[in-house]
Amino acid sequence: MENIECPSGVVNEETFKEIYSQFFPQGDSTTYAHFLFNAFDTDHNGCVSFEDFVMGLSILLRGTVQEKLNWAFNLYDINKDGYVTKEEMLDIMKAIYDMMGKCTYPVVKEDAPRQHVETFFQKMDKNKDGVVTIDEFIESCQKDENIMRSMQLFENVI
């Protein structure tokens, strides 16, 4: 991955990864930082401006449930095609587990992220077409307290 130079006041992906590695020294945060960076990098130019970052943060901290869920959907939709696949969800979950490290989840088994995703995905994919749309995502999250709770948990890692 080439290191894109960004003007001052702007952060590139490497810097994002360095910041996250300091927040989560007990685990490997590089993959999660990569996904988060892409969610903040709204114009996909390899740089996150201060404005992009502040806008993202203000949604996560003060946004409505709908806004937060939209943001979360965008994070999970890794290839930005408007759908979340089981693989994408699994990639994000694995990244979160890796980042939190073994000390946070000492009893987590290797397949825990996959089981987590299986459960979530089955609940979310209402029409069973193998992908989750933004509407399915938002509806499922708002109806299911466990999902909302893990969204809250997920806010703690932003």
From TrEMBL:
Topology class, membrane: Peripheral membrane protein
GO molecular function, one term: potassium channel activity
Gene3D superfamilies the record matches: EF-hand
PROSITE patterns (alphabetical): EF_HAND_1, EF_HAND_2
DNA repair found in the keyword field: no
Subcellular localization: Cell membrane; Cytoplasm; Peroxisome
CDD domains: EFh (cd00051)
Keywords attached to this entry: Calcium, Cell membrane, Cytoplasm, Ion channel, Ion transport, Membrane, Metal-binding, Peroxisome, Phosphoprotein, Potassium, Potassium channel, Potassium transport, Repeat, Transport, Voltage-gated channel
Pfam families documented for this protein: EF-hand_7, EF-hand_8
EF-hand domain: residues covered: 28-63, 64-99, 112-147
SUPFAM superfamilies, A to Z: EF-hand (SSF47473)
GO cellular component: monoatomic ion channel complex; peroxisome; plasma membrane
Record bears the keyword Coiled coil: no
Listed InterPro entries: EF-hand-dom_pair, EF_Hand_1_Ca_BS, EF_hand_dom, Recoverin
Family according to the record: Belongs to the recoverin family.
Record PANTHER family: CALCIUM BINDING PROTEINS, KV CHANNEL-INTERACTING PROTEIN 4
Name of protein: Kv channel-interacting protein 4
The species this protein was found in: Anolis carolinensis (Green anole)
Name of the encoding gene: KCNIP4
